[in-house]
Amino acid sequence: MSLALVVRENKKLIVEKLDIPKYGSKDLLIKVTHFAQNPTDWKHVHFDLAKPGSIGGCDFAGEVVEIGKEAIGNYRKGERVAGCVHGCLDPKFGIRGSFSEYVVQEASLVFHYPSTISPKAAATLPLASITAALGLFRKLALPLPPTTCRTSVLVWGGSTSVGQYAIQLAKAAGCFVVTTASLARHSYLKELGSDTCFDYKDSNVVSQIKQVTNGNLAYAIDCVSEKRSIQQVCATLTGANPQVATVLPGLSTEIPSHIKEHSLLMYTIFGRKMNVFGQDFEAQPQDKAFAEKLYQLLSDVLLPQGLVKPNKVTKMPGGLNGVEEGFKKMMDNKVAAEKIVYTMAETTKQ
């Protein structure tokens, strides 16, 4: 038996005992040691998108328990790995989110991380890094790192989890990285690789960005993706063939017709047809292939060479029992430039 945080009627979250999940021939069965919290987790519960019986959570770090006969990657039992799963799916699909002691994921979508990185830090990597990478390299078609492309890229909302990975990945690709964030975050974001930072609250921020990019900016990723942010981002894109990647849907009406929009949905990396936020999405095998390549690159190059570093961690106590408090903290905007992470071993069955 294993513990999991199950969504029940009236948005209740209950720690329950469940059978250990079954795994397929290409899968790994992983015992979760740490799991991170993302905005999508609380939004699925709060907005009634998670059906009763579903299990939330996406990011995890853990240890390999069982290995499918056709699993790639030469994994061994007991190895430390990280990855993400599709949390809050309809329970009829039998896929558990990371708010569970055991998860199953295809081996190609799991990755090793160096011994210099702690499991709690590794848990911050999978979802946000692949979201940033999908935007920069799959959608905006910038070259994969490490390379030197010298293209200017705007990362709006650089202190967000996705923003921090976007800065590092763009820098590793040799881009000139322009970032917005509150003044208190500028020093840290420059440590991550931002060439210049601007205060998003400054009334002159658009003209400042235009000036530093000589009016030629054509690539941006909006890691906030709200009405005001996308309007400001689009105003900076005065270069040829401008493109913007957004992390939330529903902004198309705010984007001028001459700017190409790429709406990101990281769940496409799982390579299956799905219904998310009440909409049907076809399988995207190209996104899955890209994620496999990116996670391999993280494992082999970007993490060992220090080109990408995990988010800073805010540790929440209580394991699965602490998730509701973590949700409240995020909903009240009390999480900034850090990622909430829980330790599974602190969970108790109440």
Automatic annotation (TrEMBL):
* Enoyl reductase (ER) domain mapped to chain residues: 8-342
Gene3D superfamilies listed in its UniProt record? Medium-chain alcohol dehydrogenases, catalytic domain, NAD(P)-binding Rossmann-like Domain
Q: Which InterPro entries match?
A: ADH-like_C (IPR013149), ADH-like_N (IPR013154), ER (IPR020843), GroES-like_sf (IPR011032), NAD(P)-bd_dom_sf (IPR036291), Trans-enoyl_RdTase-like (IPR047122)
Any one GO MF annotation of this record: oxidoreductase activity, acting on NAD(P)H
Tell me the CDD domains matching this sequence: enoyl_reductase_like (cd08249)
> Which stretches are annotated as coiled coil?
none
Q: Please identify the protein, giving its name as recorded.
A: Enoyl reductase (ER) domain-containing protein
